[in-house]
Amino acid sequence: MPDEPISAFGERLLAALDSLRPRAFVLDLRFNTGGNLDLAKDLMATLEERTRGIPRFVITGRATFSAGITAAAAWRAAGDVTIVGEPVGDELDFWSEGGNIILPNSGFAAHFANAFHSYSELPCPDDVPCFLDLSAPDLRPDSPVSSRWADYAAGVDVALVAIREELARSRCTLPSNGSCIRSRNRRG
């Protein structure tokens, strides 16, 4: 936002995280359609580090694209995160970046992609310019839920309902070192 750069927002968010000491962390990427993936990269890394040891959830949806997929893949690759919601809006390996050109004869604008993002566990192909190679496990939701119109009209966020249910089901045992061990059904 023009009146608050991402760095100021990040400082405010991290201060709140430190003072409130949440019991769980939820990152909602449902409507992150992308953009400059470098803008929040440092903030995401700091959040991932500071939320270790508590239940962590990433909400994804059909409108999670490009830089939104980058964030989801980075959290999945870091481990100990539950993805809730709908599948992301693209594959884990996709073309992006590029620019716009005006076609000379028609005058129509066209967008071209010139960099490959490889987020799957497959290596980036040798013969393509690879912008980013993350090697993350798949992003299929561990807890798949989809909103219906009736949910939206009633003000019910089915993803948050699923997260609350997961937290209620989680059993936390405290071993001698005091850390919480949760048992959940998870994908490998």
Topology (elements, then pairings):
Blueprint: H1 6-20, E1 25-28, H2 41-50, E2 56-60, H3 66-78, E3 82-85, E4 93-96, E5 99-102, E6 109-112, E7 115-118, E8 130-133, E9 143-144, H4 149-153, H5 158-169, E10 172-173, E11 181-182
Parallel strand pairs: 1-2, 2-3, 3-9, 7-8
Antiparallel strand pairs: 4-7, 5-6, 10-11
What does this 3D model show about the protein?
29% of the residues lie in helices and 21% in strands. It has 188 residues and is α/β, with parallel strands linked by helices. It folds into 2 domains: 6-91 and 137-182, 2-enoyl-CoA Hydratase, Chain A, domain 1; 93-135, no CATH class. The protein has a 4-stranded parallel sheet, sandwiched between helices. Strands 4-7-8 form a 3-stranded mixed sheet, with no helix packed on it. A hairpin with a 6-residue loop joins strand 5 and strand 6. The radius of gyration is 19 Å and the shape is globular.
Give the gist of this structure.
With 188 residues, the protein is α/β, with parallel strands linked by helices.
Identify the notable features of this structure and list them briefly.
5 helices, 188 residues, 21% strand, three-stranded mixed sheet, alpha/beta, 2 domains, 2-enoyl-CoA Hydratase, Chain A, domain 1, four-stranded parallel sheet
